[in-house]
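Shape is hard to put into words, and the shape of a protein is harder than most. The fold becomes a row of whole numbers, each drawn from a learned catalogue of backbone shapes. The outcome of that step, for a single protein, is printed below.
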Amino acid sequence: MDAIMSSQDWQSRELKRSLRHVNVRKQLGALALIGPLAVFILLVFLLPVASMLMRSVENPEVVDALPATTQALRQWDRKSLVPDEAFRGIMLDIERNGGDNSSGSAAGRLNAEKEGFRSLFYKTSSALPFGKTDAELPAAEIRRKLTEIDSRWSDPSFWTAIAGNASRYTPAYLLASVDYMQDANGAIVHVPPGTTAYQALFKRTFVISALVTAAALIFGYPLAYWLSILPARRSNLLMILVLLPFWTSILVRISAWIVILQGSGLVNRLLLTLGVISSPLPLLFNRTGVLIAMTHILLPFMVLPLYSVMKSVPPSYQKAAISLGSHPFGAFWKVYVPQTLPGVGAGCLLVFITALGYYITPALLGGASDQMVSYYIAYFTNVALNWGMACALGTVLLIATLLLFACYKKIVGTELNLG
């Protein structure tokens, strides 16, 4: 009897071991299948986003180019006289850099806060060294020689700008992206009126995105409803027309809208022929052209979620409401529309988030007052070469998008719980 029990225990352990091996092989197979996708997402999405978040608070140019100066200014209260060691530090740092590009990078960073640093660094670099034993000169003598080279070295505001960048990390870019700054004491204050307008820029971006989303919903909902009630063959054929813009370059579509909306384009010529207007309407290089083109480009992103939800709504519900005495419109509004709200929410979220990052359409069809955040991100990246500011604007836009998505998830979750 004991031998039989031992044999059964051994068989049970072997069976469990075999099941574990099978599960491990299945898990390894699943990891092998999703591994390339996970690596791809990590390389092309997560790492760039993490790099953008880090670059929005990094400030290495001044610290790397002027280590002795920033070290001497870290204990300065920005109210008393500039320490003599700071003058020694700036002399040694500029001498050490020589023709290196690091001084130019630091001057460019500081010039964004206090105009004149580029010429000041260049003039000082041309006058150095003072002698073979510069490091042995008294600090007071170095102060005198530097102020003789350029009187701006006696201006505390230049030293305050250097002291404000004495840390490798700074909130300056993120604060500037929402029209705030740190004053000489380190307190967060609003920028002077007329200095920047990033709050107005974000407001404009959200307004344009909201208008495009509303227009896409107004045009997309009837179209998706019509496609959902058509026979499958005709619906599939028309769906190809909805998807056709995806197979056409966005530049081609924008060029087509330029031809259509220009003063002698199809729209104005048609309206003039019909006598609706007496002179061509200004439809290009303004907000109107931007909204028309963006709505056309993003309309499929609204139609597809709506169509997928509407196809799953049984038509018998609406018929039952009508048979019980409801008006057809009342049955549609109170029975059918609530069941399509998940599609409405998904479509609006998809269109709105996509519209937030639009760059080409406003740049080609809009005027100066119609550019969105992405335009200035491209400007700081390609023209001004201010990567910190570009990443800060992108970070604020990313945070706004995540908050919007979180609000949507909360609303959808609340509706599901109520249901």
